[in-house]
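User: Hey, my collaborator sent me this sequence without any context and asked if I could get a structure. I don't really work with proteins. Can you help?
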Amino acid sequence: MSEFAARGRGLVQRRRARTAFLAGMGRGLAGALLFALPMLMTMEMWQLGFHIDREKLLLLLVINLPLLLILSHHIGFEETFGWREDLRDAIVAYGIGIAASGLILALFGVLKMEMPMSELLGKIAVQAVPASIGAMLGRSQLTRDEDEECENPELRKRPATYFGELFLMAVGALFLSLNVAPTEEMILLSYKMTAWHALVAIALSIALMHGFVYAVSFEGGHELSPETPWWHALIRFTLPGYVIALSISLFCLWIFEQVDGTALTPLVFAVIVLAFPAAIGAAAARLIL
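Assistant: No problem. I've predicted the 3D structure and written it out in structure-token form, which is a compact way to encode the shape of the chain:
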């Protein structure tokens, strides 16, 4: 009787695991569409799939997999107990991003059968990166309340270390940067800016980052205790977060071929312009992930 009961419990646990995984995949698909749809409907992203340097595209795809792997460790589709399962979640998220990108691009007539295979694969590959990140973020944003209140503490989001929080800030900065980095407006705005505009943009980006996370009592925010000096969080989190936003912005501009032929001053201004939404994304990541 005990053996029969044990088998029954095992069957129930396996069914629950499958249900949780399928629910996670459903949230992942919803996240891929929700977060990546603006890019899927942007002409610059379609064109990038055709003319982007293939070495840069390969680098972007290679970097995306370990990014998804670490992200899965924090907010994967379901409970995981090791890097092997995190790798599975990362591959699933990548697959969802590829499938969602191909489906939407084909639906809108961006992909056509007469196109060369390199163009078809390039357009899907470029879009699959933000879509796969969206698929992984869908687990965090679309998880039901009962999932968060599960009795098993392993099913809840893992507490992030200091470097883990910096990584999540980088993910948020990257994701929001991907929305606007390929557009011509980044370079156009850089030519319209003056040095004073750039300084104000830097100051406002840092102020918003610091205010979003600490001064405003958003749910999930990191409020400072009364004993903590105000400059502690600024130096420990906000300023490193802004440096991350600047680095991610430069990387995105380089990947999306916005750097070639651009003079140094407009390039610096373009990085500062792109770092504004990147900083917001980094701050939002610490609030919601």
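In plain terms: Confidence is low (pLDDT under 50) at residues 144-156, 217-221. You can pass these tokens on to your collaborator as they are.
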